[in-house]
Amino acid sequence: MLKFVPVAVALVVFCRPAFAQSTPEEAASKARIQVGRLRLNPTIALTDVGVDDNVFNEADANRPKSDFTMTVTPATDAWLRLGRSWITASMKEDLVYYGRFASERSMNGTYKADALVRLNRLSFTVGGDYRNARDRPGFEIDARSQHTEAGYRGAMELRAFSKTFVSVTAERSTVAFARDALFLGASLQQELDRTMTVVGVTARHQLTPVTGLRIELQRQEDRFEFSPGRDSSSTRIDGGVTFGARIGGVAMFGFSRFEPHAADLPGYTGPNASVNMTFALVGSTRLAVRALRDLRYSYDFQQPYYVNTGGDMSVTQGLRGPLDGTMRAGVQQLAFRGRIGTIAQPDRTDLIHSIGGGLGYRVSPDMRVGFNVDRQRRTSDLSGHGYGGMRYGTSVTYGF
Predict the structure, then answer these.
(1) How far apart are the C-alpha atoms of 131 and 146, rounded to whole Å?
(2) What is the four-CA torsion angle of 278, 5, 189, 59, rounded to 10 degrees?
(3) CA 301, CA 318: separation in Å to the nearest integer?
(4) Which of 21-35, 249-263, 371-385 has the lowest average pLDDT?
(5) Cα dihedral: 202, 203, 204, 205 (round 10)
(6) How many Cβ atoms sit within 10 Å of the Cβ of residue 388?
(7) pLDDT of residue 23
(8) Which end of the chain, N or C, is less packed with Cβ atoms under 10 Å?
(9) CATH no., domain 24-399
(10) For residue 35, what are the contacts with CB-CB under 8 A and spacing of at least 6?
(11) Which residues pair with 325 in a beta bridge?
């Protein structure tokens, strides 16, 4: 589906940086429904109701196909308080419809649950998540591919001082593609099915009620089920600042070392970054900035990974009364690394540019209607790998 793709695509990122999150108390306080100790926040969104003029991300010379499309997304967040402890859960379904091309229709489910147990100076968190989807796994692969992601995790955090916390974390997750998931003749199951194990140590210090410092050290082991020549280990350290109030989000910067186990695959040592910030400017103007530099796996065995550097920015301005307007733009660079001895273009680069905008009308505090236009274009050193396309239509979001 051609649309304004988020820069952080969880499926293919080597190490997922931690983002600033509200406490369960803060999140649950905004729930619309309360039944005893259980709080619920159900929503439904009707998005992308319009036209996708390049359904398969084809090059202009191949006469891209156009189709009517829409996506219905019911979702629910839930919080259950048990004394000082919490159980949280979220469920979301994307029901994707295409008019002519039935092969592109899908039902994509994402489910997550966590239990937070608080003691005097210690807290424990255990949880898991599961995703079953048929969509594009990142910027590189244009085919909508059936795949599942499943994982479980645990953490123990110690309150070392009044405003300083130290935690140890462990996580294990798997990625599995369907047997018939293909892209440019390559089996995504054979190339990308893998298990990831991550252990880490985190220290955070709360400077003010809305500002904190954070530093993380992680070690990750990736093991491929059918392609052991892709196995790798990686180490990274990140530090950054978390914000609240008029400036919100997190900015993390660090350094990583990627060590492939295969002798013919060059490693990577260099900077990494993850930024997700919002700014409340003058009046009703809102600015959102996201940036990423990280490694991702490629479907191509001869070019097993690439360095993804890019970001996007959006500006939302209140126009008059309940009417608002948004402008957005982004760019992504995919710098591929080839195996030693690869014959052609071992280190090619793809560029993806996106631009768009829209108008929104807030019918009520819980309902917004919008009209959006987004255009995306990819250029590539690889012949026939570029494309362009536009998507336009309406969206309706409603919170019960």
Answers:
(1) 11
(2) -160
(3) 48
(4) 21-35
(5) 180
(6) 18
(7) 85
(8) C
(9) 2.40.170
(10) none
(11) 317, 359
Other C-beta atoms lying within 10 Å of the C-beta of residue 269:
10
What is the overall mean pLDDT for the chain?
91
Take residue 76 and report the two structure tokens written for it: 């629910």
pTM (2 d.p.):
0.88
What's the rounded Cα separation, in Å, for the pair 285 and 246? 11
CB count in 10 Å sphere of residue 392: 17
Contact 349/332 with Cβ under 8 angstroms?
Answer: no
The answer to whether residues 71 and 96 touch, using CB atoms and an 8 Å cutoff, is yes
Is 316:302 a contact under the CB 8 Å cutoff? no
Helices (H), the chain: 24-28, 188-192
Whole-angstrom Cα distance, residue 237 to residue 254? 5
Nearest residue to 66 via CA among 143, 146, 2, 136: 2
Q: Tokens 């649309």 belong to which residue? A: 3
Structure tokens belonging to residue 81: 């308080």
